[in-house]
Design a protein that fits this description.
By secondary structure, the protein is mainly beta. The protein is 7% helix and 37% strand. The protein contains 1 helix and 8 strands. Strands 1, 2, 3, 4, 6 and 7 form a 6-stranded antiparallel β-sheet that branches. Strand 2 and strand 3 form a beta hairpin.
Length: 147
Amino acid sequence: MRPPKRDKLDYEKVETGVMIPGIIEKVEYDQEHNFKGFQGKEDTVQPAVRLKFKLEGSQYAHYSRWMKFTLGEKSNLYKKYVSKLVAGAVPDMDIDLDALNGMKIKTVWSEENGFQNIDAIYPDGAKVNADAFTPENHEEEPIPEEQ
C-alpha cells in the first residue's frame, strides 16, 4: 500500500540579492526549542528566538531561522541582528528584544537548497536605542546614606 498523495506546498519566495524594505512584526520566543545536532553532536533543548517580518510586496509573513537566545559575541542573534539594529550594541548586553517590534528595516535575502535566508539586515532610519549593560561599562551607584 502506498501513502496518500499530499499537496505540494509552495512557499512565497522573495527576490534575492536586492534590498527589500519591511518591518519586524514580532520577536518570537520558544523556551524549549529543540536544536538538531550537527555532525554527530547531540540534539539540545534550550531557549530560542526568531524574528517575524512583514516585507513590502509579500502577502505572507517571513521569518528568520530559530537562533539560540544568547547575545554572546559569536552568536548569530548578536552578530547578524542586534549589532546591526541596536545603537551602541555590545556582546552580552542587557536588552529587551521586544524593543525591535515594529522597527522599519531593509533586508537582503539569499536562497540555498530551496531555503531562503536573510543575508543582511539594516535599520530603515534610526537604530533602536537601548541601555547597554555590561560589567565593563556599568558601575553601581552608591546608595546615599541617610542623614
